[in-house]
Design goal:
The chain is an alpha/beta fold. Helices cover 33% and strands 21% of the residues. It has eleven helices and twelve strands. It has a seven-stranded mixed beta sheet with strand order 1-2-3-4-5-6-7. Strands 8-9-10-11-12 form a five-stranded mixed beta sheet.
């Protein structure tokens, strides 16, 4: 029986806490990569930032760390001097929301009518948009302390998606349930044909599955399939819709398909080992990721290959135990 297998889980608690502590970012430079005519990717320390510019202002997806806010704002101002109107958080981790307060404070919200007249500070600061679960993790975290209120989203959604129109194009914000976390969003710029994927797609390493905050291997794979459904290539798997990953280089359908295939194969290998009654130590010794480690693996750092395999193993064991418990 699965429930007799060794129960083992790695809880990367430090990664589940949105950190706002001071860090030495003095040597970090912000690189600007043009993606489409009005879409740019900013690369620094932490999650990739997406910037959309236009006549109505600036929209920013994710904000990296607070210590980099001045450099990020300088980079944005080199692209447009119009006000920052919106910040969208793809999830709640510190390397994606650490600059929320500073970036939003530098912007302004479009307001008018009774709101503008009755609430004196209604237009102060850009609006911050995120899924409701991401908001809850900032306000009432599973571990650690809550973020100060100036980091919190001012607009949340709890439905499968939220649509908006800004700078002449439709923007669809889609919830990806129980993937990297339970509050992940991808942001699809429909006219520009660019998707900002957050950490449901990490083009630099095996995915960090934040089980403390609702993440799962099945959800990560489902999110990859959702991305593939949205992407239209020019030829074969190349070109066409561009995807800005949470970390790593600018990507297209081929990259996302390779990611999805890798995750599916590793999941199925580990599930097969579980079905044969193998313990975690036996699964680790069997090295189910060996042929992918050169591209995706890490032997040290905050998220190693061993941590990834152990988390996938426990995810799958828990899923089987839950299913048996309902029978």
């Amino acid at each position: 029986m699965i429930n007799k297998l060794m129960s083992f889980i790695i809880l990367p608690i430090a990664l589940s806490i949105p950190r706002v502590n001071a860090q030495d970012m003095s040597e970090v430079e912000i690189e600007i990569l043009p993606v489409r005519e009005n879409i740019f990717m900013l690369i620094g320390q932490g999650g990739n930032i997406t910037v959309q510019i236009g006549k109505e202002g600036v929209l920013v997806v994710d904000t990296q760390y607070a210590e980099l806010s001045d450099k990020i704002l300088t980079a944005i101002r080199s692209l447009s001097n119009r006000p920052i109107r919106y910040v969208i958080d793809t999830h709640h981790h510190s390397d994606h929301v650490g600059g929320n307060a500073n970036i939003a404070k530098a912007g302004s919200t479009i307001s008018g009518g009774n709101v503008g007249g009755d609430i004196g500070d209604a237009a102060e600061g850009a609006a911050i948009i995120a899924h409701e679960n991401a908001m809850l993790h900032m306000v009432v975290p599973e571990v650690g302390e809550a973020l100060p209120s100036e980091y919190w989203p001012t607009i949340t959604y709890f439905t499968p998606r939220r649509d908006m129109w800004f700078n002449g194009e439709g923007i669809r914000i889609e919830h990806q349930p129980n993937a990297h976390t339970d509050g992940d969003s991808i942001v699809y710029f429909r006219q520009s044909d660019v998707i900002s994927a957050g950490d449901v797609f990490n083009n630099s390493m095996y995915p960090f599955i934040d089980v403390v905050n609702g993440g799962s291997i099945q959800g990560i794979i489902k999110a990859a399939n959702n991305l593939i459904d949205l992407i239209i290539p020019v030829y074969g798997q190349e070109g066409g819709t561009l995807v800005i990953p949470g970390h790593g280089r600018l990507s297209n359908m081929a990259d996302v398909i390779n990611w999805r295939t890798m995750l599916t194969i590793i999941r199925d290998r580990i599930q097969h080992m579980i079905d044969r009654g193998m313990t975690l130590e036996e699964v680790l010794a069997a090295a189910p990721t060996q042929d992918y480690d050169a591209r995706w693996g890490r032997d040290s750092g905050f998220w190693t290959t061993t941590m990834f395999v152990s988390t996938v193993y426990q995810n799958l064991v828990d899923a089987v135990n839950a299913e048996e418990g309902t029978e």
